[in-house]
Amino acid sequence: MTPIRHNASGGPDNDAVLDAVRDCVLAVGVRRTTLTDVARRAGVSRMTLYRRWPDVRSLVGDLMTREWIAVATGAIPAPEPGVPARDVLTEGLVAAVRAFGAHPLFRKILDVDPELLLPYMLDRRGASQEALLELLAGALAAGHADGSVRTAHPERQARSVLLIVQSFTLSLRTMTEEDDPELAPEAFLGELRGILERTLTP
Fold this sequence. Notes:
Blueprint: H1 14-28, H2 35-42, H3 46-50, H4 56-75, H5 85-102, H6 104-112, H7 118-122, H8 127-146, H9 154-171, H10 185-200
Helix pairs in contact: 1-2, 1-4, 4-5, 4-8, 5-8, 5-9, 5-10, 8-9, 9-10
């Protein structure tokens, strides 16, 4: 096992610990992962982890935040001269839903530990949702500025768009039929594209 990386202060590097958590979750799921498993895979003591994370769920929460933000920011392309901000945002959001559907950790949690996602659907916003709202607000503001996005209360508009995209991300597989091209995942992503276009067009 490769020793874990350490930061400048001598503590374990966050990404290295989260990588170890990811490997454990992908192997056995969240409920069967223990801090002992993570510490062993990371090459640190369990007490080292306890100083920063009280339990596996807090570790997994930080892991999900890192992974979900990376998926979303990686899917939305940078603005291009002459391309309306609405087009960039719409295509980026469709790409993000597609990327989440293919993401190994996201698929594992949906398959084995879906209850981990319920608080962020029913009770409160998580850190990744706050970061995504900030990303959306910036993209929508660019669309307001270039006239390609319908002007509305920016925070409400960003939250509404996230609600739409979140529902496709979490529930798409419950509506698809792999053996019917008209009900396949890509057909629904085409519907999502149309919904976003109609929602955002002035």
